[in-house]
Amino acid sequence: MKSNCILLLTFTLLCLLSIWGIQAQQIQEKPWTLGPFQRFTNEAPIITKNPTSAFTDPVSGEDVRWESKATFNPAAIVRNDSIFVFYRAEEDLGEDKIGRHTSRLGLAVSTDGLNYTRSPEPVFYPDTDKQQKYEWPGGTEDPRIVETEEGLYVLTYTQWNREVPRLAVATTTDLKTWKKHGPIFKNYKKGKYHTRETKSGAIVTRLNDDNKPVAAKINGKYWMYFGVPHIWLAHSDDLIHWTPLENEDGNLVPVLSPRPGYFDSWLVEAGPPPLLTDEGIVVLYNAGNSQSLGVKDLGNRTYSGGQALFDPREPWKLLDRTDHPFIKPELPFEKSGQYKDGTTFIEGLVYFKNAWYLYYGTADSMVGVLKSGL
């Protein structure tokens, strides 16, 4: 009789979860993880491409439709009671191949987390500056952004010249006027990693007294998780000049790697800025699945989201990680677009009006958002 009651309660709970639109994978798997996150936008994206947006490109001098192909992979930050979402926008150049378009960063602003007002022109893009050789013609891609306690905003992004993707840094105090500092490893050991693929820089944050995530120092240094198909680690004194973590042989040391048999069997890639908590550093990461080595029913090379916990004093020391994705492509707009296998590529995380908002790109085509604390 007791077991029948338990089964009935379980069935009832699953039914309610279905009615409320809460997916099973969004139930909190471990006590240290962030969430659980829920979809709350009526199963619709918040940002989609706009074939009519026009912009005079400073490099080519031509009027271009800068977000005519796709809008995806967003960063996010809170400023003056609004959420600022910086999203990657691709201009349609007529070639239906990933990586062969020109990317710029657009901006969408929201005062409620649900409705967004977009800028008519991109706010960060390749220009006739010292970074042009790294950013043209592929563009500026896949941003993450953090704020310091002093109010400086630090943007990490990928420079794509269609030869080598390079992780770079830019800063601003007003989210309008940007200073580009260039590839972060250009001068490290005479450019040891300058011609090596680097991307996806996620700087560790903490909640300050106002419950605002700000760049965190651990042992006197800032830390950043970066890279793909493994995740590596770098540290900095000023958030601009970075030193990668190497072993005694002078090689990069992966701190998180793919796992055969799991949803992250193909690759792992840093997601939004990690959060330093009492339990440790919570790293939300993007996970690629290999169908032959990983989860059979997830799909081959499908991107989902996982979480990992690192030691709060030794950021390279992995303490725990989730065994199941807390978000994966399920809705039509998450499984259709440029990336046919489907993605929920997490990149932006903010704490806004007593809730966490997690922003993600879908199938390299649109922007979605999740929320915790509904």
Please describe what this structure looks like.
It is a single chain. With 374 residues, the protein is mostly beta strands. The chain has a single domain (47-372), classed as Glycosyl hydrolase domain, family 43 (Tachylectin-2, Chain A), CATH 2.115.10. 6% of the residues lie in helices and 38% in strands.
Largest β-sheet summary: 7 strands, mixed
User: Kindly state the mean pLDDT as a whole number?
Assistant: 92
- Total strands: the figure is 26
Overall morphology? globular
Low-confidence stretches: 1-25
Ends apart, CA distance between termini:
34 Å
Question: What is the name of the CATH superfamily?
Answer: Glycosyl hydrolase domain, family 43
* Number of continuous helical runs: 2
User: What structural class results from the helix and strand content?
Assistant: mainly beta
Domain module count: 1
Radius of gyration: 20 Å
Order of helices and strands: HEEEEEEEHEEEEEEEEEEEEEEEEEEE
Q: What level of helicity do the residues show?
A: under 10%
Could you name the CATH class?
A: Mainly Beta
How is the CATH topology named? Answer: Tachylectin-2, Chain A
Strand content: 35-45%
Q: Under the CATH scheme, which architecture would be assigned? A: 5 Propeller
